[in-house]
Amino acid sequence: MRHFLDLASCSTDELHDLIDLALCLKAEWRDGGNEPVLCGKTLGMIFQKPSLRTRVSFEMGMKHLGGDAIMLGAQEIGLGVRESVPDVARVLSSYVQGMMARVFDHQDVLELAEYSRVPVINGLSDDYHPCQALADILTIRERFGRLGDLKLAFVGDGNNVAASVALACAHFGIDFSIATPEGYEMKAPIREQAIEIAKGNGTVIEMQTHPQLAVAEADVVYTDTWVSMGQEAEARERAGEFGAFQVNADLLRQAKPTAIVMHCLPAHRGDEITDEVIDGAQSQVFAQAENRMHAQKAILARLLA
Ligand code: CP
Ligand code: NVA
Q: Pairing mode, if any, of strands 205-208 and 220-223?
């Protein structure tokens, strides 16, 4: 593994290795601290969009492993505007030992990787959010003690988070059922990637428009915003389309009583999820957020050490 750009281009073995390593690094950190395996290394972090979790969890992850991180916000680099993406990749990779980029167009992160001399990590693009999905698998593994024989229902928009969660489920053998309004399905090529990966282990990848059917007998109920970063102009129209796709107590009752609730955050309370559910006993959203740091430390250790 040279870069971490999307889960379709990782092997299932590489992803299992990252989860195992994340569990070790998390235990080590809780035990007093990690080995400084990234001493002398710096991660350059490019952000075209805002962030709380991704920015802070990468920066703290680097510090825990003995390294450093530099934050480069949208106003500083002007990726593809002030300077071409290949030139940014060439220059930045002559200073730092790894790059993390949060971009709009997924092509930009692919192009950074193509022209970079150092590993590139996708910290969210319009198409994928692989670091989120890896952390989510870590959370599911911790809560259930296993990854097999589980069903995850995703309710809402077929967006970047849905895409990466679908691919993660395909790799790890978790049955995946997504309910979206018509017109907001996962992109066909990404759906096909997930189905292709799932074929290898008999996992079910299912799309539909009925939240109740998707959630039936689910072990995990997952949702995300109806309006992703960059789609703000569609907010009003989307609110009208997604009303029936709210994760609330009624919908959650269709899942198994032992089901957990997940959300990548930031949440729009009262829209895609109610306060009662996100603050309820089944919610794991803050464990997910913490696990971003532990899962990413595994990625950093594998790519940069
Ligand atoms: N979940 C997530 O990526 O959060 P941020 O946008 O705050 O980084
Ligand atoms: N789908 C959301 C995820 C935020 C972490 C977005 O892209 O804005």
A: unpaired
The reply to whether 7-129+292-304 and 130-288 are identical in fold is yes
| Nearest ligand for residue 133 CA | 1
pLDDT of residue 50: 97
- The residues that bridge with 263 in the sheet, in sequence order, are 223
Residue nearest to atom 1 of ligand 2 (CA): 228
How far does residue 202's CA lie from ligand 1's centre (Å)?
31
Residue 46 burial (CB count, 10 A): 26
Q: 161 in ligand 2 pocket by Cβ < 6 Å? A: yes
Residues of the chain with pLDDT under 70: none
Task: For 7-129+292-304, give the CATH class.
Answer: alpha beta
Q: How many CA atoms lie within 13 A of 294 on its CB side?
A: 24
Whole-Å CA distances, 27 to 22, 31, 63? 9, 6, 17
Q: pLDDT value at position 163?
A: 98
Kind and range of the H or E element at 59? helix 53-64
Q: What is the pLDDT of residue 65?
A: 98
The class level of CATH for 130-288 reads: alpha beta
Question: How would you classify the pairing of strands 98-102 and 120-122?
Answer: parallel
pLDDT of residue 80: 93
- Structural domain spans, the chain: 7-129+292-304, 130-288
**Distance separating alpha carbons of residues 60 and 67, to the nearest angstrom:** 9
Closest by alpha carbon to 70, among 37, 118, 7, 14? 118
